[in-house]
Structures
1.
Amino acid sequence: MIRAISILLAFIVLTLMLLPFQLASIVLGLRLQRTLPHWYHRMLCALIGVRIREIGARSADSPALILSNHVSWLDICVISALSPVVFVAKSEVAGWPVFGWLARLQRTIFINRQARHQTGAASREIAGRLLGGDAVVLFAEGTSGDGIRVLPFRSSLVGAVHHALGNSQHRHVTVQPMSLAYRSLGGVPMGRGLRQRVAWYGDAELIPHLLAVLASGAVDVTVSWGQAVACDVSADRKAITRDAEQSVRRMTAAALRGAASAHLAGPVPAGHNAIPPRALHRIDPCSFAISAAPACVSPPSALAATISASAPISKPRAR
């Protein structure tokens, strides 16, 4: 519990330090509003002890819609630590104490999944963010799961692709599947028992779950990027969703088996153009460096060592 309290105190200090800069950047419309949450979550991952192994890479093409499975509240930190993104979340999150406020600061798109008549409006808002240059992450299952099974993906909000293309000069929107697979906790491989310590789903209460994760030690997660596909106006949103779901299922199963050389590419239906994936690399939370490597990094020591590390960020090198 001492570890959890120490992390919470460091989180409060870090948040209060960066808060004025994020608020100012949002009000003034500065690019910093996109990049600051990225660095904030990198530091949070270092604090918590999240060790990220990345297979493949996010496509650099824009507009970009990322379709992912959803396991835990940690997903937000992990994905944001890899790249500047915005998330789509259920409207209830906006009212959560502290967390709803943080989600607003990251410019999260809130939608009411229960009101089907508002799907069109939600898709248009997502399309607006895509056209504005944001990479949008959609947890396509619509809820969180146990981290082993991937639930069926919902296609309704993938219609944002057509809204984006119908209101711009862009000819394609890049859609890329992404898998999150939590593999060990405190250095111990996750079986079904330990997995519940990280996976936040069902009726689990947020605060007790959060404290348990913070007190448990290092968390190892594999993030796998699937085949990026350039979708035009002829692309079928149900086909896009189905192919992304199949890709995420394959990548998640491969990551849980420890198969780093998993076959990431899936079928490319009509109206799509395949974009090849790039390098295999990892994020080192101790130095904030990105490097080509086949193994996870060692756990971070302390926040001071993390922030003061001088190693630069380097581009992943293709093998």
Note: Residues 57-278 form a domain with the Glycerol-3-phosphate (1)-acyltransferase fold (CATH 3.40.1130).
2.
Amino acid sequence: MPEHRQKVIARLAAWYLRDCPIVRGRGLVNRLLGRFLEVQTLGDIRIRLINPLEYHQRVLLFGVPYEPEVTCFLTGVLKPGMVFIDVGANLGYYTLLGAKRVGPHGQVHSFEPAPLQFRHLTLNVETNQIANVVLNNCAVADRVGETQLFMSDGWNQGTHSLGMAQGNMRECRVKCTSLDEYVAEAGLCHVDVVKIDVEGAELLVCRGASRTLTLLKPPVIVFEACEKWTQALSHSTSHVKEFLEGCGYAIYRLEASSAPVRTRPSTVEIYANLVGIHTTAAGFWYEQLEHAVRKCLSEKDLVEEHGNERAMQ
């Protein structure tokens, strides 16, 4: 379908699913749109929306900035030729961003255990005709074999987890590996950036990457921390930070601010996007973190200023 026609359809779909007062038949329209609907983001990245009412897909359809701090930071740090590992890829937003940034001489290694999300991830990689991505349909933890995945039936399909943090979750048996095992089998001599979004299993991922973190010393680890989800796996977000600090990483909050804020290892994180920068890493990585938080702060101030202006009119 021509690009201009896709944009028109996407705008009409966004209006119907968000603003149209008629709600009857919305589920049917959602399923029909899922057969062909596509949006463009970050310039020329194309993302197929197979379930436009699902939270992550809805954000992309409505044109809302998708995790702006994380997007800005990864856009700044990922350079041609780098190796990027995306643990918990979901529909592939960061996998596609990474593939675009590291270029044909770089590599992206993407992991997604949930069957439906993996098919969606594969579809988006194929849609963009990307050749520098290795797709892995498995979970990442501290062991190799199989594990139980608890899948959400709600409208946010990014909340599948290795722990049961809420009652309405289905169980699914999936393959599992560790980053240490994978890095060794793939023959990776260096890893530049690791992104981890695994709904509470961050400590398991880090424990299973202890050799990689010690020997290869990836300069940057970006990860989500949510106390509710980590407690479902019988540990705390503070344990994740303490483990990474023990591996040589300084942990910072990835949020709109005038300067990066370092977080204490013992502090519990109700919800936060965090960045670990290895103490041996060059200043470039910290500079990019500074740029990301300041850019998001300026954009936040601009949005608030415009909102105040509209309120006064």
Note: The chain has twelve helices and 13 strands.
3.
Amino acid sequence: MKAKRIVKWTGLGLLLLLVAGFQIAYWSSTNDCGRSIPANAERMKAIRYCEYGAPDDVVKLEQIAKPVPNDNQILVRVRAVSLRFFDGGMLGGSVPGRLLFGLRKPKNTIPGLDFAGTVEAVGGNVTEFKPGDEVFGVKAGALAEYICVRQAGAIALKPANTNFEQAASIPTALVSLQGLRDTARLQAGQKVLINGASGGVGTFAVQIAKAFGAEVTGVCSTKNLDLVRSLGADHVIDYTKEDFTKGDQRYDVIYDLVSNRSFAERRRILKPGGICVLAGIGGSGMHKETLSQFINGLTASFRSRFSNEKFVNFGVDINKKDLAVLRDLTESGKVMPALTKTYPFPETAAAYKYLETGHARGKIAITIE
């Protein structure tokens, strides 16, 4: 009995500590929205969201202090920013989003990652770039007129054959490039099925798989069939009319950006020893299927440990070297961003609202004049 009481009170104590820790973390979660701009600081415009909520309620275009680069940084005049599928989830304040970005309030109040622009100034130790260079890359807080990026960070010269909006869309292709090249180890002549072929990542995956010499089948809705065909897909499947898991075709690789099929269904259409790369959970933002599709991916990965066909969860490595690979693929004409919508800087909230529908085609970019 004494041991039971010890276990009971120990458990209760731990629970109370956990609740108290959460409360402290929640109420101490804050951001820099209340700080004033130093009197001697230059100013710039930036998109900010100081609270969680709907885009129309929380996305604001405000004046903040312009950043000053240190000796190892590049000051970039941002000309365009593209949105990623998870950007909408950052704004809404979902439970996973709060755990990542701040419990009560967002820690980093300027959204955006993928940018393109012109080098405005460089620090004393920077030798790779010079003022006037047109660049693209990845940097948190990109939805601003100016950002500072480390020379060693994810930044590269912009492809010469793209405008700024197109170039800002290219970093998303890191997910496609690394998932197909490094995780799937896709080879020329292999057959690959891309589930979610019309989205921001999927449109790049179709083109990169073709660049690798694969035979590509893209899965999308009726309205997006022509888009996926135009990107080079050898075959397209309209998921509103046909269940791709019930066909006779077998694939060396499934590149799955939706994870809306069971382990058994996907395994059935893999060739012996094939691989399913789990690279997404469908759509943008948080929707009613998000949790089930996330769990579906985790369970599929675990179950594949006991089969010859592998299901592998994939995480992207944002790096300068692969940005250069994507630039070369773009300049060679093998890859081109499927940019379908652009919004002016003051209409950023409208861009987020469109993204949150979960059915965005290709890439969305915001132009910063």
Note: The mean pLDDT is 88.
4.
Amino acid sequence: MPDAPQPVHGEPLLEVSHVTKRFPPIRKGLGGIRTLWEQMRGQAQTVSALDDVSFEVRRGEIFGLLGPNGAGKTTLCKILNALVIPTSGHMTVRGLDTIKHHHALAPDMVTVFGGESDLFGFFAGRLGTQQNLEFIGDLWGLPREVTRERITEALKLLDFEDKREEWYQKLSGGTKQKLFLAVPLILRRGFTVLDEPTIRLDVPTRRSVHDLIREFLNRQHGSTILLTTHDMPEAERLCDRIAVLNKGRLALVDTPEGLRRRSRRGVVLTLRLQLTGRPGNDEAAARAALLAASPGADIALDPEADRQRQDELTTFLLRTQARVGGSSDQYVTPQVIATLSERSLRLMSLNVAEPTLEDAFVEIVGGDGKEDRA
């Protein structure tokens, strides 16, 4: 279980109010003539990326956006950066509209779009990492000496100091993503938007970046962070609260723990028993004992363990109705152990699996993760 993020009780920094975004219909036919004909007849359907979305991000927190592909996460981030104009509704940062007052808000914001190959042209292909990052510092008005000091620190933190003079166009996809992530480490703005920040990164680098986001940006430098991700462990490890988007609509907002509690899947116990096979100490007796300890539970042999059965142990899966964090959650495990002991059934090992954030997410979005185009 990852360390729980520290609770945050700040005033709203970002307020999203009834934001809807509809894109024109997909062009069909030669030159889009079929779509034009459908529009004239009132048959062409617009593509809805966001539909009446409202939530707020509190100052000082790490706020996550989860959703399947096409749920509208990146569209929302682009509206926040005045790259896309909403069809209706509005967003405000510190009370200023993100479209009307973007120039006033931009100096204290920085956004990394992980899926963009060149971060909207910020980086010149035939300039080295150092020069490109110095240019970013100039854009945000940092003194050149401060920028250079922070570049050295960022390259060390992200472990690509050897790429300081490497041309941008020669960098691998993973190294380019490190370069993108160096931008918020150097600028240290009050509001940071990270759209899939660990895409293309290997596991060790991803873990290091998690620490930098939480400890360096958020806790040490006080940056409020809006994070979009498909990585459930990443969301659970980093986020104070999470909004789930599904088909452009806001499903709910809750803490990672709160989302896990919403899962309908109960606690699952994996028990390995040493049975003699004699009456009272066989599979039937074990089933009866487990059912007595947890009435209503689903009891089955673990098919994988049963096939191997090399250690003469019998493995049961006990799917209980106990909800994570509930009183029955704390009750069921000791009750199972006590019942097996009373009936002289030898328990060799026990593993308890609680519902995960992924379990809750799949239930919320409908189970298949498929989305309309948005």
Note: The longest strand covers residues 12-23.
